[in-house]
Amino acid sequence: DSNDDIEDVSLFDADDDVSRRSKKSKIRHPVASFFHLFFRVSAIVVYLLCELLTSSFIACMVTIILLLSCDFWAVKNVTGRLMVGLRWWNQVDDDGRSHWVFEARKVSAQGSKTSSEAESRIFWLGLITCPMIWVIFAFSALFSFKVKWLAVVVMGVVLQGANLYGYIRCKVGSRKNLTSMATNYLGKQFLRQVRFPGFWKRS
């Protein structure tokens, strides 16, 4: 029978592709993903609505600082390690010297990653967007002469900016690596311009 020669390979391949895509888009750490955004978004919401909810500046300031502190601790110690496999900390050696350590989880031998693309998007979106919002708040408080809120806003910029800087260093490597990469790139561009001087004029 001619039907005996038919193989359903494409069907199984399609199922494998669907399963791979579902694994990439699946959130493996829903609790960490929730708290990665909860504290920082809550601090922004409290800052925007606190004057409508209460007239006590001290209560608003303490609430916002507590939320920012919880966010700093959670992002630095928990969500970065679980969601994207990155961590950074300060280490003091036996001589009393302080060192900043930036680490990224190594990919396994099979090339599989423990973090999903959905978690990575959530992590970096929250990590980058919220400090930018606090910078906007800082300029707004400065130009509107709200001096009493300026200290709270600066605290938000410093705490969330520190996590952003630390995880960017973990992602791209040490400053020495960045310098060597920039030097190599500029060297290649210079050599290309010397070899083909007319190319840059035409483009």
Automatic annotation (TrEMBL):
Location relative to the cell: Membrane
Transmembrane region(s): 30-49, 55-75, 122-143, 149-168
An example Gene Ontology biological process: protein secretion
Protein's membrane topology: Multi-pass membrane protein
Cellular component GO terms held in the UniProt record: Golgi membrane
Subcellular location, principal: membrane
Keywords in alphabetical order: Membrane, Transmembrane, Transmembrane helix
UniProt superkingdom: Eukaryota
InterPro entries: TVP23-like
Similarity section: Belongs to the TVP23 family.
Protein name: Golgi apparatus membrane protein TVP23 homolog
Organism of derivation: Oceanites oceanicus
Lineage: Eukaryota, Metazoa, Chordata, Craniata, Vertebrata
Gene name, Swiss-Prot/TrEMBL: Tvp23b
